[in-house]
Amino acid sequence: MNTLKQIEILRPIGNGFILMSLIIALLLDGLPWEGLWLMLRPDFVAVVLLYWCTHKPSSVGVGLSWLVGVLADVGDASLFGQHALSYTLLAFGGVVLSRRMRMFDLRKQSTQVFLILFLTYSAYALVHFQLYGNVPWTYFLGCLTSTLLWMPLSIVVESMRQMSVERE
Amino acid sequence: MDSTQNFQVFNRGPSPAARLVFFAVLSVLLMFIDVRFRYLESARSVLSVLISPIQYLASRPNFFLEQAGDFFVTQNSLLKENKALQRQHGQDAIQLLQQQALVQENLQLRNLTGLQQRNQLSGQFAEILYVEQDIFRRKVIINKGSAAQIHSGQVVIDDKGIVGQITRVYPLISEVTLITEKDHAVPVQVLRNGLRSVAFGAGDTSGLSLRYMPVSTDIQNGDVLVTSGIDGIYPAGIPVAKVQKVERDAAYPFARIDCLPVAGVDNFRHFLVLSVMPVIPDRPEAEPALSKFKTKKVGGH
User: Fold this and answer.
1) Which of A143, A160, B8, B44 is the most buried if burial means most Cβ atoms within 10 Å?
2) Do B187 and B196 meet the contact criterion of CB atoms below 8 Å apart?
3) Among all residues of chain B, which has the CA nearest to that of A94?
4) Is the ipTM beyond the 0.90 threshold?
5) B194 Rama class: left (phi>0) / alpha (psi -120 to 50) / beta
6) What is the model's pLDDT at position B296?
7) In terms of DSSP bridges, do strands B155-157 and B270-274 run parallel, antiparallel, or are they unpaired?
8) Closest in B31, B50, B59 to A81, CB measured
9) Is A82 within 8 Å of B203 when comparing Cβ atoms?
10) A28-32, A147-151, B46-50, B296-300: range with highest mean pLDDT
11) pLDDT tens string B82-95
């Protein structure tokens, strides 16, 4: 594996960086999306949480994801615990598969990410179905766009970590 | 990658599976409490203080775009708008003059017949901060909260008709459920013949529908539905929707009636929150045998 050498250069991730990324993700989720864009909106928080759960399971895990989920519930006025439940499942998937994920390249990672995100979206939709009895299928489009977000996010975060090393 | 974490074999706390079960059960419990008892509204408003700076920031790009858009409005379009508004004002003025006379006459007639007086409507101006982030629901957040004496249950209108109802109040903002929200009900009357009904939001589209109306019911395309004021939440006589399609199929017991809201439910940024909630006497108690099944009264819809 030629990536091993590269990884050793990467700077360790600080907690402040993780916190900032989560706040930015909440911000992006909170932008005024409407209509078609709302349908296609990726769940930024879910993708960022999943990224940290797989790449830094020692500091981001099930508990923190649950907490962020509760904040997301307050943020978009959904049922208390609805996002929390789905993000808990997401974090569990991320933590359990973290070792495997780090062995894969980005393309293989994306398929794994899609499965985990689909589980997350299904949990959310299931709760909604229990309450209201209908789920528009367009809701699952967000699952696809979220998966597409995985690759750019991984590339951006890695390049940021490399840049900070070059500066020293 | 952090190679250090591999050495912390003995200091990891509970396993991920145990945490998953714990937090999943906690979430389900929270959902259950939230649905059944609504005890968590105070916790929600406390947490909303944490999240509100992020929401505020998220609404800024839109705000700046609009500001920039306002700056580049041409004089021509302003003139045109001004002319249209003046024309509208002239037409309205005539109707207003007549209306004053009618109100006076109505008041005297109501005095004569001993009916209760109708309240004058008054309200406060509010602006949409965010539209709902959830594809499932039709709600908006406005910039007035309990600090501005907003209470849940107040009615929100625009210049054409009913927009929705306040369903959740935070200190500085509050949440408006639009009339097109799924299963949101507004008691209405057909303006043409006074027929009473209830308009339900369709949820998936921005329309409403009248349910449980017999096939033979006297409703036509283009009928205007106004609030009947029967539930005591919506004041009487405000336009709600216009009938768009009536489908009478003898195979079904009820006619299928689709309506479109007259208010710009999805269009505008500025609304009026009515401050007077009509006061009506409580509904008489149900039969004693049924009273133990009485459901908890929930604010809103």
Assistant:
1) A143
2) yes
3) B16
4) no
5) left
6) 44
7) antiparallel
8) B31
9) no
10) A147-151
11) 999 999 998 888 88
Comparing A111-115, B38-42, B180-184, B274-278, which segment has the lowest mean pLDDT?
A: B274-278
Which of these, A43, A27, A36, A31, lies nearest to A82 by C-alpha position?
A43
| Average pLDDT over chain A, rounded to an integer | 84
CATH class of A13-166: mainly alpha
* B181–A contact, CB cutoff 8 A: no
What is the rounded CA–CA span in Å between residue B164 and residue B153?
Answer: 10
Interface mutation target, options B3, B9, B23, chain A, most CBs of A under 10 Å = B23
pLDDT 10s digits, A74-113: 887 778 888 999 999 999 999 988 888 888 888 889 999 9
Please state the pTM of the whole predicted model.
Answer: 0.59
CB contact under 8 A, B1 and A10: yes
**Sign of torsion, CA B12 B14 B18 B23?**
negative
Rounded distance, CA A22 to CA A70, Å? 13
Report d(CA A8, CA A17) in Å as an integer: 19
Count of CB atoms within 10 A of residue B24's CB? Answer: 20
Nearest residue on chain A to B267, alpha-carbon basis? A34
Query: Which of B5, B23, B59 comes nearest A62 by C-beta?
Result: B23
- Each as own residue / partner, the long-range contacts of residues A125-130 (CB below 8 Å, 24 or more positions apart, any chain) are A127/A79, A127/A82, A127/A85, A127/B31, A128/A82, A128/B136
CA distance B219 to B193: 9
Site from A10, A50, A70, A74 to mutate, B interface, most B CB atoms within 10 angstroms: A74
Per-residue confidence (pLDDT) for residue B294, from 0 to 100:
44
Listed by start position, the domains of chain A span 13-166
Residue B7: pLDDT band (50, 70, 90) is low
